[in-house]
Amino acid sequence: MYDFLMSPKDIEIRDKTRKFVKEKVPSELLKKMDADEVQYPREYVVNLAKEGLIGLRFDPKWGGQGLGWTAEVAALEEIGPLGMSLGCLYSLPSICGEALSVFGNDDQKARYLKPTLEGKKFTAEALTEPRGGSDFFGATTKAVKDGDDWLLTGQKRFVVGAEGADYFILYARTGDASTPSKDAISLFIVDKDKGVETKYLYKLLGTRGGGAGRLVLNNVRIPKENVIGKIGDGGKIFYQMMIPERMTSAAGIIGGARAALDVAAEYSTKRKQFGKHIMEYQGVSFKIADSIMLLDAARALVYMAARAIDTRQPASMCRRLVSEAKRFATEKSWEIINMAMQVVGGIGYTQIYPIEKILRDARLSMIWTGTSEIMNLIIQHEFYRELGERKARKDERNAELDANEIADDEKVYE
Q1: I need a labelling partner for 295 at 20 to 30 A (CA). Which of 51, 78, 265, 398 fits?
Q2: Do residues 294 and 317 share a domain?
């Protein structure tokens, strides 16, 4: 379905991922993760790496496939039905690998990116802090120079992979009160065995089994070789990393919504009420129709954003489209999953069907990697910038001049 959106290589990756999801991930693993009996299943990531499905966008020199975002989006939709925890563990090498691939040096790529894509090292991103989530530049974790090394002190929380990662991509404040905020944050590679403590594993509504926890750092020593980019580059790197963070969230949740829709649609062909299959009632079938439309619209926007990135469209346009894709896909998938539960009815609220689990997982999608409100902030900001640039060019028709009355004295703005 929708093969016309993809290249032959994208289709090959999609089909390979679909086969992996069907044959290599047992239902028992999903159940144990949801029961918090398993945290950070390394074997899953190892098996993905063996199949060549991790790091699709990265240079083959470091173990990637050299493909584009359309390939990764296709793979992520297939991963989506496994749930958001396994989707996140699939995505972490892409998210953390972005910093290493774009800003890291060859030594860092050899020591961290390559073994990560080979399934030999496991990574996680340490961004959010107890005092701040959306306020990235308000980070309070500090890095203090000590000879050639840096001493890191502070806390990070909601770190998916806190329990299972070998190393973290971690932001810390290197500037002082006089440093402009955009230059005050730097990015470090922090090996877990250098003194990082996993203080607390969270009990979550959904998205369980990913080892999400709080990290505590108390003068953890980091060598200068583990600074990604330059000191003060954290803001620039953060904006780059938001592309894979938000694209993976958008593409993965489409797969989860698709799974819920499939369960509900199939149920509607079997369940009878008042002597007819419930699919024959518009109250049900129109919910299915609405869900199909929303899912297709979300998918189209995600692929549009992927194509914009792959073809190197202006950065402002990419930021806007990625933010639109993330917000629209997560919010509309949430609607689709809720409609699926409504179609299935009371039994859909139980664990007899997987819709309740998909619903619990999906709620987080509108919060992590940038809330819907932050996405709106970016969308309107970039649009107004683009609007100003378009108006300055004066190469488009001015629709305002087509009004039936020309009465400039009635156009009062202050």
Answers
A1: 51
A2: yes
Query: Does 353 score more than 90 pLDDT?
Result: yes
Amino acid at residue number 10? D
The residue range of the domain holding 144 is 126-232
Do 17 and 134 belong to one domain?
no
CA 169 distance to own-chain centroid: 16
Q: What is the pLDDT of residues 171-219, one digit of tens each?
A: 999 988 888 888 899 999 999 999 999 887 889 999 999 999 999 999 9
Phi and psi at 6, nearest 5°, equal: -125, 155
Torsion region of 345: left, alpha or beta (phi above 0 gives left; psi -120 to 50 gives alpha)? left
CA dihedral 186, 192, 193, 195 (to 10 degrees): 60
Report yes or no on 406 lying in a domain.
Answer: no
Interior/surface letters 74-111, b for 16+ CB within 10 angstroms, e for the rest: bbbbbbbbbbbbbbbbbbbbbbbbbbbbebbeeebbeb
Q: Any idea what the CATH number is for the domain that residue 155 is in?
A: 2.40.110.10
Q: Are residues 146 and 188 in the same domain?
A: yes
Beta strands 149-159; 213-223: pairing state: antiparallel
Count the alpha carbons within 13 Å of 100 in the hemisphere toward its beta carbon: 36
Tokens of 50: 């063996």
The model carries a pTM of 0.95
Helix axes 27-34, 84-103, angle to 10 degrees: 90
Q: What is the DSSP string of 213-240?
A: EEEEEEEEEEEGGGEESSTT-HHHHHHH
Residue 217 CA, distance from chain mean position: 26
Structure tokens at 21: 């999801």
Structural domain contains residue 395: no
Structure token digits, residue 26? 């047992």
Between CA 382 and CA 154 the distance in angstroms is 33
In a domain, 21, yes or no: yes
For 116, the enclosing helix (H) or strand (E) is helix 114-117
What would the two tokens of residue 223 be?
């060598």
* 282-315 pLDDT, tens digit each: 999 999 999 999 999 999 999 999 999 999 999 9
